[in-house]
Design brief:
The chain is mainly α and 98 residues long. The protein has 4 helices and no strands. The N and C termini lie far apart (42 Å).
């Protein structure tokens, strides 16, 4: 595999640094059946993004307006924002406000 110039990229975090170092150590190997792996990745992405359940949710008027404002600030629909918050909470990646 082609070595990356140290000056070409500066890792943004430790995880990215570890990945870059593993590439430089030639720890990555090509997959045997690239088309099969692509299909598996596509199927996983589709299943992850599929939204097939509807819910009704009661909110206070104040919370509803704050969600709408935050969604506008983020440039996304408010339903998408609510779904994202729930998803992040369930995956443990929702960080408390400091």
């Amino acid at each position: 595999m082609k070595k990356l110039s140290k000056k070409a990229f500066k890792p943004i975090d430790q995880e990215e640094k570890d990945l870059m170092e593993s590439i430089e150590r030639d720890e990555w190997q090509p997959v045997k059946n690239i088309n099969q792996e692509k299909e598996k990745a596509i199927a996983a992405a589709r299943n992850t993004l599929k939204k097939n359940k509807r819910i009704n949710l009661r909110l206070t008027q104040k919370d509803y307006h704050q969600i709408q404002i935050r969604a506008i600030e983020e440039g996304i629909p408010y339903q998408t924002l609510i779904s994202s918050v729930i998803h992040k909470y369930l995956n443990g990646s929702l960080a408390p406000k400091s």
